[in-house]
Amino acid sequence: xxxxxxxxxxxxxxxxxxxxxxxQRNNPDAAERIARxxxxxxxxxxxxxxxxxxSRTPGSLFWPGQPGVQFQEALAPLPxxxxxxxxxxxxxxxSGLERWLHARGIERLVLVGVSTNNSVEGSARSAGNLGxxxxxxADACFAFAGTDxxxxxxxxxxxxxxxxxxxxxxxxxxSDSASVLHCLFDAT
Length: 188
What we know:
Elements: E1 7-11, H1 30-43, E2 48-53, E3 82-86, H2 97-103, E4 108-114, H3 116-129, E5 133-142, E6 146-147, E7 153-154, H4 156-167, E8 173-175, H5 177-187
Parallel strand pairs: 1-2, 1-4, 2-3, 4-5, 5-8
Antiparallel strand pairs: 6-7
Helix pairs in contact: 1-5, 3-4
Keywords: Hydrolase
GO molecular function, one term: hydrolase activity
InterPro entries: Isochorismatase-like_dom (IPR000868), Isochorismatase-like_hydrls (IPR050272), Isochorismatase-like_sf (IPR036380)
């Protein structure tokens, strides 16, 4: 594994996210973009980390033993790739992720996955606060429609865009998959 390249962190790309019960989402091609990034990381022998959410709420699509907990087949980890399990949105909380990265001298991170305004945003905020050089790939993440604090319905695109705006320049750099791939191949 080449620790001089950024680690690709794939957040919560589990079967539950493909379930219509999860809600109306944006970026329908996000999984294909994540798969393309994953293929490039594997070809470059760069570090890959898969984050899996395990809920503590009975009845959740992410409750242990439910089919929704499994990784989506096209994005499933290889035996040598690191898997992190989390119980809260932030992949750094009580998971050992920070320690794992530091032990390998990894300082640059590329985050993809779901949902932009929850687990991706929470993890990117921690990564930035912990001093990691963090990139969030906007077109390889997605969000779900929701209602804001004032009771206004917001589309998945609006939720996604606001989460990216919260991160860009403060905790992370927001980029797109083509640019990230270009930078990765320039470094190899």
